[in-house]
Design a protein that fits this description.
two-stranded antiparallel sheet, globular
Length: about 525
């Protein structure tokens, strides 16, 4: 393998682009992990039960008579009582009714519908449960392990995106990627969060890797070997997060190749050393496919009572999905709990303004290629989920949720910022500082407000006025006041740091451009 393709030491200025966002993202995701009651996140009870059993040797649940799903055994301290989730679908009430998980009142077995899922994620997050017999502490620790894994992947994406000389608009695009719903999911025991974070890392690192292969590119940033390391790890995790992972991997790779253009793609596929990395990713993806086929993960037939449209045609499924798309978009921005805690419309408006302005500028001011890229990204984000669910609706029923397509939705603002940051978008450089600063402010306001709103839902419920939070019926670890203050400080710090990155990279890009065109500098001096 050529020296340039080995994972060489990262220069200090690029190392900071990883460690600083990692610290911010890990803090924010961990705060989300602590802010909600156990199992208040969709399917978390099933995923946690599988992880707890798997790290103790039960990789696949057992088939037992009378059980609808595979059954896993839970050790003392982790016995499950469904009353732990007494607050579900009751947003007017607090979570004070929940019994303590593992208090001895529950069952030593759990019927989990994820008992045969790919084991990789569950090993990565289940190990903290081996360190304690206190079920609540163990699950919160598993949440934090998932939060750190998600932060690692997201920080790699930030580092790759910010490793170029021209990153004028990328701080805003990246802030939109790391929105509250993404941080909420990464801070849970659910492979969906790591799936989204891995996709974000793959989008940014593969685009930057392909850019490095462009013969006309003079931008020197992270080494090919380091970028390949990010692409390989994130690609394998994406392929193995859920049974549909290999398809998501193919879609992201194909989209990145299309965005980068024929010249970069040709250079990419004519470089022999690349096929070593491609082979590793292919092997990881093959494992995912074999696991799914061997365990029947994609073969189960849902009953008519399990979900709407079981047995319906693909056309019916696609049509229903398209009609429900506005709801899926709302969920991807922030609908918490088991989809029982939507935000007020005014909060959605705050972040929609930031997204809308970024998309309009990319569609109208970054050249014809950017217009085509962004238009295709929007269409793909709307159509691909409808097609995937439509094809399977007869077997699974209509089970889609907004979080399943979040890896596609987050690519839209990221690609918009990416195209605006290219030389073709330089005509809008004069407004980039102001719009980025305003956008970062709006994103921070939205993220903090969503965090506080979710806390209110569980500490007091919505049937009580806001001031009753001073005397909460339920408290998260460390108390909601502490979590709120820390979240506000970290969010503001993160936005300020991202804004400074944009300024720093803009100044550096202008200096390099002037050095490469001395005749223009001379002309300007003479004038």
């Amino acid at each position: 393998m050529p020296a340039s393709d080995t994972p060489a030491k990262v220069p200090g200025r690029f190392a900071r682009k990883f460690w600083i966002p990692f610290a911010f993202l890990a803090a924010l995701s961990t705060l989300w992990a602590l802010a909600s009651p156990l199992f208040s996140i969709p399917d978390e009870n099933a995923h946690a039960a599988k992880a707890i059993a798997q790290v103790r040797g039960q990789v696949i649940g057992s088939v037992e008579s009378g059980a609808k799903y595979l059954v896993v055994d839970l050790p003392p301290g982790y016995h499950y009582n469904h009353s732990t989730m007494c607050f579900l679908f009751k947003p007017e009430s607090s979570a004070h009714c929940a019994v303590h998980f593992g208090d001895g009142s529950g069952s030593a077995t759990f019927d989990t519908w994820v008992g045969a899922y790919n084991p990789i994620y569950y090993y990565l997050v289940g190990w903290p449960s081996l360190l304690t017999d206190n079920g609540e502490v163990g699950v919160y620790a598993m949440r934090i392990a998932s939060a750190l894994l998600g932060a690692l992947l997201l920080a790699w994406g930030f580092q790759a995106a910010l490793s170029s000389r021209r990153t004028r608009w990328l701080p805003l695009g990246l802030m939109l990627v790391a929105g509250p719903m993404v941080l909420y999911l990464t801070g849970s025991v659910n492979p969906n969060g790591v799936e989204i974070a891995a996709a974000a890392a793959l989008w940014a690192s593969l685009l930057r890797l392909l850019e490095r292969h462009d013969p006309a590119s003079t931008d020197v940033g992270l080494s090919r070997g380091y970028l390949w390391t990010i692409v390989t790890i994130s690609g394998i995790l994406l392929a193995n997060a859920r049974s549909v992972g290999p398809l998501w991997l193919v879609i992201v790779v194909a989209a990145c190749l299309a965005v980068s253009g024929l010249r970069s793609a040709r250079a990419f596929f004519t470089r022999p050393a690349n096929y070593i990395w491609i082979g590793v990713i292919a092997a990881g993806t093959l494992f995912s496919g074999i696991w799914t086929l061997a365990t029947g993960g994609a073969a189960g037939q849902a009953g008519v009572a399990d979900a709407p449209l079981v047995g319906a045609s693909a056309f019916s499924g696609v049509t229903a999905m398209l009609k429900l798309t506005p709801g899926f978009l709302e969920q991807s921005l922030g609908v918490f709990g088991w989809l029982d805690t939507p935000l007020p419309w005014m909060l959605y408006a705050v972040v929609v303004i930031a997204i809308g302005v970024l998309l309009i500028l990319a569609l109208t001011g970054a050249g014809r290629r950017a217009t085509i890229v962004i238009a295709c990204a929007i269409v793909g984000a709307l159509i691909i989920p409808a097609l995937v669910q439509g094809v399977t609706v007869s077997r699974t029923g209509l089970i889609w949720q907004g979080r399943y397509g979040l890896f596609l939705y987050l690519a839209v603002p990221l690609l918009a910022a990416w195209m605006l940051s290219r030389p073709e978008g330089s005509r809008l450089d004069f407004v980039s500082s102001r719009i980025t600063a305003i956008g970062l402010g709006l994103c921070s306001l939205f993220g903090f407000s969503a965090f506080l709103y979710a806390l209110r839902r569980y500490t007091t419920g919505f049937e009580h006025p806001f001031n009753t939070m001073l005397h909460p019926a339920w408290q998260p670890p460390l108390g909601w006041q502490t979590l709120t203050v820390v979240y506000a400080l970290v969010t503001v710090g993160f936005a300020v740091w991202l804004g400074l990155q944009g300024v720093d990279r803009r100044d550096r890009a202008q200096t390099v451009e002037q050095e490469q065109r001395p005749e223009l500098v001379a002309d300007s001096v003479g004038a």
